[in-house]
Amino acid sequence: MAISEKPEQKPQRNPEQRPERKPEQRPEQKPQRNPEQTPQRKQKPPLPPPRDDSAVRAWLFVREAFTAGTWRRVAYALLAFPVGVLCVPLALLGAPTGRWQRGLVRRLLGRELSGSSRGLAHATAAVPLNLLVLAVTLYGWSLVPMNLGWPLRAAGSDYSDAWGGPTFAGAWAFHAIVGGFGFLLLMPWLGRALAAVQLRLAAALLS
């Protein structure tokens, strides 16, 4: 007899037992940064405030009248004209006047000149310039003691028409500040400009 095979019975599902669902895999979310917790960038140190050099410049302007270089230029202004006039006839006699004039420039103006000995050419060409520098230097520097000591030359005179008058104190203050200290501060810089012109002429003819 043939054995009949029983059909396989499928397991019956319990309606109360629901199939377990696999948890859905959500895409990983990047953690949001709190704007308050953002990393701070390295800040550059603040630039220093601009330096005010006005006080330094004012001091350099005032102290120029008391430097050794100013008085060396004054000495050259006083000596250049008589030395140049003396070098004209001596150069005709064959004296080394070019070397003498270069030595004067080196000692008083601090410039080394080396070259041909054209002492006659420089002495002749520089006479008008040196005479002008001599006159300006003598007049300008003489105003300093004349105005600082103004009461000595204005004793017994009427102060009503004087600069800074009509009082004696006002006239003296005006002459001392404007004519005395004013030319004391001005003459060193004027002498520097005149010495530069003299040096340029000497460099052109003595080197």
Commentary on this structure:
This protein is mainly alpha-helical and 207 residues long. The protein is 58% helix and 0% strand. Helix 2 (68-92) crosses helix 4 (119-125), helix 2 (68-92) crosses helix 7 and helix 3 packs across helix 7 (168-206). It is flat. The termini are far apart. Residues 1-5 have low confidence and may be disordered.
N-to-C series of helices and strands: HHHHHHH
The overall average pLDDT, rounded, is 79
Number of H- or I-type helical stretches: 7
Biggest sheet character: none
Number of strands: 0
Low-confidence stretches: 1-5
Beta-strand percentage range: under 5%
Shape: flat
Helix coverage percent: 55-70%
Structural class: mainly alpha
Distance between the termini: 147 Å
Question: Would you kindly provide a brief summary of this structure?
Answer:
This protein has 207 residues and is an all-alpha fold. 58% of the residues lie in helices and 0% in strands. It contains seven helices and no strands.
Question: What layout of secondary structure does this protein have?
Answer:
Elements: H1 54-63, H2 68-92, H3 97-109, H4 119-125, H5 127-148, H6 150-153, H7 168-206
Descriptive labels:
207 residues; mainly alpha; 58% helix; flat; disordered N terminus
